[in-house]
Amino acid sequence: GGAVKNVLAIAAGIVAGRGLGASALAAMVARGFAELRRLGESLGAKPETLMGLSGLGDLVLTCSGPQSRNFAYGRQIGAEGDIPAPVELVEGIETARVTRDLARRQHIPMPIVDAVVAVLSRKLTVDAAIEGLMTRPIKREAG
Predict the structure, then answer these.
(1) Is the pLDDT of residue 138 over 90?
(2) 139 carries an active-site annotation
(3) What's the CATH number for 4-134?
(4) Domains of the chain: which residue ranges?
(5) Which candidate in 5, 46, 123, 139 is catalytic?
């Protein structure tokens, strides 16, 4: 969960940078946590660890805190609609592709991570990524 949170923080920052509001940001973080939890549990993580301060608590902070470099980078992408030059201290940039590949090997769907990879590699626009994620059917997130 520790590395995946950085990818999700980029996604949350994009939503914030686009000015979509607190509800959209909360939805992104909640759905992101569901993705993180599915992947973590498939790799043997304990649900109680993921639900605790070091899991969910750290995710919320990283996806909203003003000192989160990943959130700030995503916010810049959302505000500008383009990808700024990679910054060395933004861990989520490299982690995104690694997480996507791991999730595929584990057969775990992670649409938010997929969207971040697509945006960072310029295969999907910010608006198309947000539309695709926000129009996904509402369903039970925990499983």
Answers:
(1) no
(2) no
(3) 1.10.1040.10
(4) 4-134
(5) 5
